[in-house]
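WARN retry 2 of 3 for item q-0093 after timeout on previous attempt; input resubmitted unchanged.
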Amino acid sequence: MNATIGQRSVRRRRAADLAVRATAWIGASIGIGAMLWILAEVARRGAKVWSWSFFTQMPAPVGEPGGGVLNAIYGTIVMTLIAAAAGIPLGFFAGIYLAEFGRNGRLAGVVRIIGNVMVGIPSILVGVFVFSVFVRPMGHFSGLAGALALAIIMLPVMARTSEDILNLVPNELRESALAMGAPRWRVTLGVVVRAARSGLITGALLAVVRVSGETAPLLLTALNNQFWSWDVTQPTANLTVGIYSYAMSPYPDWVDKAWGASLLIIVGVLGATLLARLILQRGKEW
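OK item q-0093 returned
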């Protein structure tokens, strides 16, 4: 009797295990298949547009074929660099406070809650906020407003990543440095941060990747510009809004350029992700 019950229990567990494995495999296959389909379609349509002129020339006049997206590439790089210069350091020091000084304090708990909310809110709300407090008072769109919106999106991502990475550093390192008489700030910057440097660099790259495909906040802040402009206080061309504008146009050549710019963003994101993984892997060997 007991043997029969035991055999039935084993069969049920095996059936449940098989069902869970099959469900997980099917779900993963559907997700990976959809991703590969999207990548293949973008690569197929975008690769035929890529040429030397696509990367080195300005957009052609409306309705005329040819030209490139040089101004959008430049504007995207400039706004991303400005946003990274503002958002990544602030997020890094916020992460240090949460992991090393605040820990279980009330203020740290409030900061964590705010960070979690900011990570989860739609990016268009950030665009609306920057439009209200920065663009409207200035009276016009600008690359600086776009960089500010991207920095706000980067900040909580970098803060949470920095906190998680610093929490992985063994407490023995901190205690050893403190026992030698080093002040807390020197222990944090000279020992803890040094031990976690590869993870922190990876977090910074991931924060940049997080904003690389944002369109809504830039549509409300930087807008776009069909001409070359060195002035970031004026409307600034960028790839994501350019893709939106080109994809919605009635001109086949502009639609093709939207595919080419989409492929460029995918390649950039893929390159940054691979670089982050390489740094993280090499960091384990340092």
